[in-house]
Structures are given as C-alpha cells and as structure tokens.
Design brief:
This protein is an alpha/beta fold. It has 11 helices and 13 strands. Strands 1, 3, 4, 5, 6, 7 and 8 form a 7-stranded parallel β-sheet that branches. It has a 4-stranded parallel β-sheet with strand order 9-11-12-13, covered by helices on one side. It has a two-stranded antiparallel sheet with strand order 2-10. α2 packs across α10, α8 packs parallel to α9 and α9 packs across α10. The two termini are 31 Å apart.
Length: 333
C-alpha cells in the first residue's frame, strides 16, 4: 500500500481570479514599506480549519516577502502595525477579534489590517474604527453590514486565505520540519502533546469503505435540523491559538491528508469543504447557523464543478449528488 508520505499531490487552484487578493497585497506592502520593524501578526485562535487559514496566510506572506513577528493581543503597543489573521471570528458568537480591535483602539496603533473575515454584529465597535483600520471581507453580505455601521475603516474584498493554499508547496515545507529542534519548539509552546493527540485522533478515524463522509459541526454554529457527531467533526478535533507557523502548517497537512483519502464530503464546515476540494473530492456544502458558508460559496467557489451548495439539508442518507448511500460509521445527517 502506498503511504501518505509517498502519495503525489497536484496543485489545485480554487479561486479563478488571479487578482482577487490584489487589494490585500497592496495594503500589506504599503504597511511593510512604512513600518517594517513594527509589523506584527496576531493569529486567530480556533480549530483545524483556522490552521488551514494560517497556512495559506503564511504562503501569501512568503510570496510578498513579508516576515511579520508573532504577537499576542496583550503585547500590542502604541505605534505598532498589526495584521490580524482571517477567519469567522468577528461575529457575536466569538470575542477574540473584537478584543483585538478594542486593544488596538485603546493603545493607539499606527495601522491595522484584518485579513478576510465574515463580519456580523459588533456595530458599535466597527463604528469607532477610523482610517487606520482596514477590514477585509470575504463575502458581499459582510461588506454591506460593515458599511451600514458608518465605520471610518477602509473596506476591502478578498477570498478566504485558505483558498490561497498551494498543497504541494505546503507538503514540501512540512517535510523540512523534523528533528529534535521542531519538537522542542512545539513543547516549549505547549503544543507538542495537543499535536500528538490530534495525530492519534486522525489515525483512529479510518475512512469508510465507500469513501463518502459527512462532516457536520457540533459547535456554536451548528443547526438543530442537522445534528452532527463530534467523532466526525474533523475541524473540531484540534484547537489552538496558532502562535507557531510549524504548528499551523503541520495541522493543515494532516487535515488535507485525511480528506485526500476520500471521494466525497458533505459538510457545513467551511474549511473541511475547502480541504476536501483542494484534495480533489466532490464537496456538498450545507450552511452553518448564520449563512457564512453560503455567502463564501457564492463569492468564491460557485464556479467549481466539484463543489455544490444545498440551501436546505437533504434527508438523512442522501449523498453529495442526492444519491442514497450509507452514512459513514459514526456520522449523522
């Protein structure tokens, strides 16, 4: 049997517009030119899907020649130039992104870019932002909501950073992560044990024989009409503040490898679907509790023939193409 390490991986391009990130490129390059010594990167804490965002972000930084330093929110100081990782955190369900923006306002930073996010709620906070802030939205509904607040922040439109990932390039980089120094760094940041538990959790979840899998969320964004099973909510099997590039790269590689064993995935996890699409699977998206996935799908993924979106959950046991099939062991429709 061919090992996962020996499997060939081809580059899959999910965004068909090569200029989709141009506004973000220009904003970051301008920030780097103004304050190269004060450029800081604040990661977005989250799950394995957020690792995928981080991995795409670091590839983007590499292509721009950017080398920002990691920083915690409490380490932000007056005059800093901040880049906040993309995701779905600037919504009422979570507080990390809003705490970051509050800190930036409190200390008087020089400039801020919030990388592609779904943005909802937090109207009073957004209204307080001025021209030092740039909010990058990953869907049109987020743009409309931000503009409706009357914010003074600049607003850009760009794809989710996970859609930037070059899989062979990521795997090649991960192959260079080896030896005692890597594990010592992971242990120093208290990430070695969680990472090893993640690898074990993946090893214990062998793909079903029919290679179709439902990955249905069981967290704050789940919907009652589509109950999930935590054993197969793959994104939720890992959580971190992602303050090491090696960690986010390795978790992303493992995440991608898991989906690379499958043929079709049905999910209301945005980045489980992205990972599956990057690995050549057929993907059927269902929405989360507040419409995030449908908005991102419409913006950047609707042109992909292997990726579909269902506006209402199908009956239990219907596969990505609406063909009856058995559910994976432990999975729920």
């Amino acid at each position: 049997m061919t090992s996962l390490d020996a499997m060939p991986y081809e580059k899959t391009v999910l965004v068909n517009d090569p200029h989709a990130w141009d506004g973000v490129r220009q904003a970051l390059q301008s920030m780097q030119a103004r304050q190269p010594e004060r450029l800081l990167y604040v990661p977005n804490e989250g799950n394995a899907g957020d690792a995928l965002i981080a991995a795409g972000t670091w590839q983007f930084f590499d292509d721009l020649g950017l080398k920002p330093r990691y920083a915690r929110v409490r380490e932000i100081r007056r005059g800093d130039a901040l880049v906040y990782a993309g995701g779905g955190n600037l919504v009422p369900e979570y507080e990390s992104a809003s705490r970051f923006l509050e800190r930036c306002l409190e200390v008087g930073v020089s400039s801020v870019i919030v990388l592609p996010h779904t943005i909802r709620g937090h109207e009073a906070l957004l209204k307080r932002l001025d021209e030092r802030f740039t909010l990058v939205c990953r869907d049109q509904a987020s743009i409309a909501r931000v503009q409706a607040t009357g914010t003074g922040a600049q607003v850009l439109y760009a794809p989710d950073m996970a859609l930037y990932i070059d899989v062979p390039r990521l795997f090649e980089r991960c192959a260079s992560y080896r030896g005692p120094a890597l594990w010592a760094r992971m242990a120093h940041h208290d990430r070695l044990v969680p990472y090893l538990r993640w690898r074990l959790a993946l090893a214990l979840r062998q793909p079903p024989e029919h290679l179709h899998l439902d990955v249905i969320r069981v967290d704050a964004e789940a919907i009652a009409a589509l109950p999930g099973d935590k054993r197969w909510d793959m994104s939720n099997l890992y959580g971190s503040k992602f303050r090491l590039r090696e960690e986010s790269d390795l978790v992303s590689r493992d995440f991608l490898r898991f989906f690379g064993q499958l043929v079709a995935v049905r999910t209301n996890r945005l980045h489980a679907g992205v990972a599956a699409a990057l690995m050549g699977c057929e993907v059927t998206y269902l929405d989360n509790s507040y419409g995030k996935i449908g908005a991102v799908y419409d913006a950047w993924m609707s042109h992909l023939p292997q990726v579909n979106f269902l506006h209402t959950p199908p009956p239990a046991g219907l596969g990505p193409a609406g063909v009856e099939r058995p559910l994976a062991q432990g999975a729920t429709a």
